[in-house]
Design goal:
Layout (H helix, E strand, L loop, with lengths): L1 E4 L7 E4 L2 E9 L7 E8 L11 E3 L5 E8 L7 E5 H14 L10 E5 L2 H6 L8 E6 L4 H4 L11
Antiparallel strand pairs: 1-2, 1-5, 3-4, 4-7, 5-6, 6-7, 8-9
Length: 151
C-alpha cells in the first residue's frame, strides 16, 4: 500500500505500508463522534495533509481514500474503501451530503455472559441498550435505554 499526499505541507510525499485489517470501525471526532464502519486499517502513515489523498495498492489502483490516523500513534492509519466512495460520491457532489447511512440513534454495549451475570439478567447475547438519542429513529420507535449501575 502507498499513501500519497502532502503531510504537514511536505508536497509530493508518499509513504508505504501494508493493510493491517479490513472492516474496522472507528469513531472520528470530526464527524460528531459517530462511528465510521468498514474502514481499511493500514500502517502507512496517515497525517494531516495526506488525508483525503489516495491509498494505492501495489498495482497503482486506488483502493481507498486516506481518512485519519490515531493521534499520538505511529503506523495506525485508516482509509475509506473505494467502493464506499463510489457509492456516495454522486450525492456528495450534487448535494454536499450523503444521507443513506443506517442510523438507529442508540448507545449500546455487547451483551456478554459476565455482564448479564453482574446485572442479574437471563439474556447473554445481543446488546444492552444504554441510551437513546432524542428525536432519533429508536426514540421515534419508542425504544428506551436501560440504565444499570454495574456492581
Amino acid at each position: 500500500m502507498a499513501a500519497v499526499g502532502s503531510p504537514f505541507g511536505l508536497s509530493g510525499s508518499i509513504t508505504t505500508g501494508i493493510v493491517s485489517q479490513l472492516g474496522r470501525t472507528i469513531t472520528e471526532t470530526t464527524t460528531g463522534n459517530y462511528p465510521i464502519s468498514n474502514v481499511i486499517q493500514t500502517d502507512a502513515s496517515i497525517n494531516p495533509g495526506n488525508s483525503g489523498g489516495p491509498l494505492l495498492n501495489s498495482e497503482g489502483q486506488v483502493v481507498g481514500i486516506n481518512t485519519t490516523g490515531i493521534s499520538g500513534s505511529q503506523g495506525v492509519g485508516f482509509a475509506m474503501p473505494s467502493d464506499t466512495i463510489l457509492r456516495e460520491i454522486a450525492d456528495l457532489i450534487n448535494t454536499g451530503t450523503y444521507t443513506q447511512h443506517s442510523y438507529l440513534g442508540i448507545t449500546s454495549v455487547d451483551m456478554t455472559y459476565d455482564l448479564a451475570t453482574r446485572l442479574d439478567l437471563d439474556v447473554t447475547d445481543g446488546v444492552l441498550l444504554q441510551q437513546v438519542t432524542s428525536g432519533g429513529p429508536a426514540d421515534d420507535a419508542g425504544l428506551r435505554g436501560v440504565q444499570h449501575r454495574l456492581p
